[in-house]
Amino acid sequence: MNKPKKRTREYLDYNECAKWIENKYKVDLRNYAGKKFTGKPDDPPYQDFWHYIVDSGDVSNGCFFYLDLYYIDGCTDWQKEILKMFKDEFEEYIEGTCIEFWVDW
Fold this sequence. Notes:
- The chain is α+β, with helices and mostly antiparallel strands.
- The protein is built from three helices and three strands.
- The radius of gyration is 16 Å and the shape is elongated.
- The mean pLDDT is 93.
């Protein structure tokens, strides 16, 4: 038996991918509806895709997580739009129904 060797893991960095999506599609994933926080009743709702990710699974600083691009039951229309953006842009990295990301902050 040979002594185990250190392995290298390839991954997509979520923050880099999110910036790519924001730049290409001219959207803000942390404030998708463009809420101005004026307190007026006609303000659009606060739509933060990061909250969707955190609520969908166990995500913490310095971890790998899977974003399921096809599990859309219970997703709102705006969440589906963003999932489609990730699917369209990073389709070659889909494994099954998910893309694996690394995230740290």
